[in-house]
Specification:
Immunoglobulin-like
Length: 89
């Protein structure tokens, strides 16, 4: 996922990302789960292994974000965790 600038409460942000192998080959049409403060959203990646997700950030302070690919018969599980600080207006 790309890094994000300072975010104010109520801002809608767009999460963009891709799922690739260690050799930088895309994993197309896979399913991922994005958790924002323990609230899950399931997404299906496109034919190039990319995703785009818009979310309105309403919780001031540190927000936990986790992206999980549960793995499949070919690829192992992968998890990305990050924290995002939201500021009051």
């Amino acid at each position: 996922m790309e890094s994000i600038e300072k975010i104010i409460k109520g801002d809608e942000i767009v999460y963009n990302g891709s799922l690739t192998t260690f050799n930088n080959q895309s994993i197309p049409n896979a399913q991922i789960i994005i958790f924002i403060n323990d609230s899950p959203k399931t997404l299906k990646l496109d034919e190039n292994g990319n995703f785009k997700f818009t979310y309105k950030m309403n919780n001031v302070g540190i927000n936990d974000i986790e992206v999980i690919f549960k793995g499949n018969n070919t690829y192992a599980k992968s998890t990305l965790k990050m924290k995002l600080e939201i500021f009051d207006k």
